[in-house]
Amino acid sequence: MSDETSVPPSDLSHAGAVVDKAIEYMMGQNISPVAIASALLGGSMALLSRSMADDAIIGILNNAIASIRSGELHEQADPGE
Question: In this structure, is residue 3 part of a structural domain?
Fold first, then answer.
């Protein structure tokens, strides 16, 4: 892909489903949520560092920070509440 930040929706959906199953498996193994999240974040950062420039990664992280500050992250985590 020429634009390294664009992801086809089908790829994103598939990757999300795989990650959801991995999280479900790890929770079943009684791995703490913080350990799971830390491992996933570390792996994500390593993958991004191999495929994107630092400024692009910083942009992604800034978007994540903005989502946290706006409360959007908790809205997504608790859609029924």
Answer: no
Nearest to 68, CA basis, from 55, 77, 79, 56: 77
As for how many domains the chain has, the answer is 1
The answer, as to whether pTM is greater than 0.70, is yes
Contact 26/36 with Cβ under 8 angstroms?
Answer: yes
Dihedral angle of Cα 7, 10, 11, 12, to the nearest 10 degrees: 70
Q: How far is CA 44 from the centre of its chain?
A: 7
Q: Which domain holds residue 45?
A: 11-77
What is the chain's alpha carbon radius of gyration, rounded to the nearest angstrom? Answer: 14
Per-residue model confidence as pLDDT tens digits over 13-28: 999 999 999 999 999 9
User: Is position 60 within any domain?
Assistant: yes
